[in-house]
User: Fold this.
Amino acid sequence: MAFNWFKKLKTGLSKSAQKVEKAFTSVIGKKKLNESILTEIEDQLISSDLGVNASVKIVDKLRNHKFELTQKNKDISKEMILHVVKDELNKILINSEQSLFNDNNDKPQVILLIGVNGSGKTTTAGKIASMLKEKNKKVVIAACDTFRAAAVEQLEKWASRTKSLFFKGTNSTDAASVAFKALEYSIKEKADYLIVDTAGRLQNKSGLMDELSKICRVIAKLNPNAPHNKIVVLDGTVGQNAHSQVKNFHEQIQLTGMIITKLDGSAKGGVIISLAEQFKLPIFAVGVGEKVDDLDIFKADDYSKALLNLE
Amino acid sequence: MFENLTNKLGNVFNALKKRGALTEKDVDEALKDVRLALLEADVSLEVVKDFIIKVRERAVGQEVLKSVTPGQQVVKIVNDVLIDALGTANSPLEINHSPPVVMLLVGLQGSGKTTTAGKLALHLKSKEKKKVMLASLDIYRPAAREQLKLLGEQAEVLVLPDSDGESPESITKRALASSKVQGVDVLILDTAGRTTLDNIMMTEAKNIFKLSNPSETLLVADSMTGQDAVNTAKAFSEIVNITGVILSRTDGDARGGAALSMRAITGKPIKFIGVSEKLDGLETFHPERAAGRILDMGDVVSLVEKAQETIAEEEAEEMMKRLSQGSFDMNDMLKQIGQLKKLGGLSGVMSMLPGIGKLQKQMEAHNFDDKVIAKQEAIIYSMTKKERSNVGLLNASRRKRIASGSGSSVHEVNRLVKQQQDMARMMKKVGKVGGMGALKNMFSGLGGNSESNMPNGMPGSIEEMQKMMGKLPMGGGANKFSGMGLPGFSGKPSKRIK
Ligand SMILES: Nc1nc2c(ncn2[C@@H]2O[C@H](COP(=O)(O)OP(=O)(O)OP(=O)(O)O)[C@@H](O)[C@H]2O)c(=O)[nH]1
Ligand SMILES: [Mg+2]
Assistant:
């Protein structure tokens, strides 16, 4: 599935990439990167949601970068600048490349998906299940969004679409107790993975945040290592509020990673660059569409290249 | 250099505070950091740039209030421009066309359209007493239609039944037909989320728009949206005719710069904001609150406002002093008119007072309207400085000149002079009888909250009101709406005082 990811991501990001490219085009033929060009580049990075901090840092690197010029190649080419920026992005992002799956014997591996409303948790649950099914794993999907209208039905459709086992509560509005029973069920079924979908919640609602801790606590009663992965699902169109999201969710339940969705749109999701740097969290995957296989593992170089429209 | 960006704006203005005077360089320095602060609040870059130009235009040449630092003054200006840019509160929905009125909700995936559709349905049903139908055109997202159906049941409104294998276009037609048959007032169409780069889906949105001919096409956007807000706003505006924006999830802790981006790009009002996950979690938009949140410097803003009030009070006090000495001249009259205009003119003041509707109609009938006030202002402006402070100079030829200069008749000039003289006399009297306190009340009481002795029995007629005004020496009463000699009234009330 990784084959089409780069292409997809690139199409998704091409709009932003064009913009960045334009900023660099004006540089061609000049030996020095003057301040106005650097400002322009900074603006373009900011427009990709990298945030002012990260953008300024990258531009500073660019400002201090010594471009190697030869007799034949006296000008700083667009390509050269782009590679400097790409290298800088890669330096930050490379540590975030990490696989979501392992061959751990501690089964079932529990994956908890959390995030603000509408970020793409349920869809991502379905997509992860699909990835696992391709690896011939036995998967249970549990519906712990006991709040939103038709949330259970939505997930159930993903379960049947991916031929996963599906677990939902009976009349229970307590997400933690549904999660507990779901793990019991997964153990009984000897499943390899249990994917727990939760209700969307804003990170400043303490009552709802506490519910997340409770889910983790209750699951840990059955297996102290569970949930093995606690993943925040971020909307690719999000701006700097993603910092508050990751910070608060991390403080609440110690995240193990992030997934960023909707990179098939015009949004660039550049905020993950500073998030990756600040929180040292892996980026397990990126969502690039609404179909079942529109999720792919995160590759730093591919992402940076796609962002900068480099071949 | 850029640490603590959220506090950055505060730092800069602190720096300015110490410098005292605000040089042009200081302003530019400050605006550079306003730019960064806005970007941190997720206002889109191109919108930030325009905004900065606007602020500079307004800030340059503005005097700094005394007791306020230049930096604080700049914050206030930024805040004011921001409120302006965010538009007005209470933009009502267009719902009074011939039924069924169609409301189309569009937006990106996960922006909150379906929940908002349910909220709008409840709002229209309970607040506007409309018969509402919900219809989902989202045939793509699993259980999207089930979700809308459940929300419709909760709101107790009609929901168009599902039927499988139907295209969004054909559901639209069916929804319109069904609404007609069932006598529905408002049909709310919830559409599938779409990215703006998806041509097929954007074409679909266009088709639905054409078919349903909506009175309102509302773009639902997440208040946590980043820089992409401009792309979203532009792309949807190109495809459909957006009439308003609804911002979802404002109960989060995002600074919400997307509000400014959306508003700037669409040029359309933000009609509602989502404030909770529940169906009643829909509120009207308040630009001041949104501005406060984006800028996040409420303390400074209220400090400057307080200073402004103080200055207004000092002005009033100064005027009082002059009045009690019997020196109420045309300049004072002009100031009074100015105060009145600030409050939205005569009709604005009237509408602030309870139980005034009837009286207002009578006043209109008597031509006591804002036009009269404007004319009086024009007359005074046509006087020379000397004439304004001493009407004794006004002989017949001067009066003729003033009349033609202000486009009025000599008779009107005469009436105004008479009125001013009556008022001056009265003021002097009031000053003696009621003392400074009473006068002060009258002059600062306009927007104030002092012991509202708006009588239980409001005067029912002009005559009664004039009677009250005639009795007014104790101040603070019904005359609140002008600090007394209400320009626009003829000299009658003061006659009674004589
Ligand atoms: N274009 C695109 N849309 C996506 C992607 N991931 C999810 N979506 C869409 O985003 C919308 C919200 O996704 P959900 O999976 O329901 O999000 P959620 O986080 O479960 O939402 P709540 O449970 O309501 O908080 C749906 O319309 C999805 O189809 C993606 O990678 N690309
Ligand atoms: Mg969900």
Remarks:
- Strands of chain B lie at 101-106, 132-136, 158-159, 186-190, 216-222, 244-248, 270-274, 282-284.
